[in-house]
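As the work plan foresaw, our protein records have gained a structure token line. A representative record is set out beneath this paragraph:
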Amino acid sequence: MFRFVVSEADAASADIADACTPRAGLASPAPATVGYWRADLETGHVFWSRCHFDLYDMLYTSGPVNLTEAYSRVHPDDLGLMLELIEHAASQKTGFHTVLRLIRPRGAIHVRSTARYRLAVTGREELVGLCEEIPHQLRLVGMAAEDPAPASLGPRGAA
């Protein structure tokens, strides 16, 4: 079980929901970047939105993604898991949700990546998903099984 912890400075602000990640070179904070992706399971081609390229600090292309370059941006300790999750989602016709570290020239970031299997309108099998930067104000903290659930999340197992 995991929970998000907000820094003390953010907790003191009146509107935590609007917390965002400052970007280098900008005078004011910008919202976290969200990119979308699609993988055609028949061809193996992967396509990203412009924002997804921004997350990986790669030049945009409207064609298939250069996966060699993309994989070089994933932290080496996270790459194997990411590839296993993609393979599992494709072969079992399911999805996944994970947190990855990206190593970029502008600096490292954490991203939340999700995917799900679907049949496209054309009948082709594909994975679709999103990749979202985790703002630096949030810290993912593991909770031991014996720790009580945070009051704001309600009892464990509640929907």
Summary: The longest helix spans residues 76-92. The two ends are 15 Å apart (CA to CA). The chain has a mean pLDDT of 76.
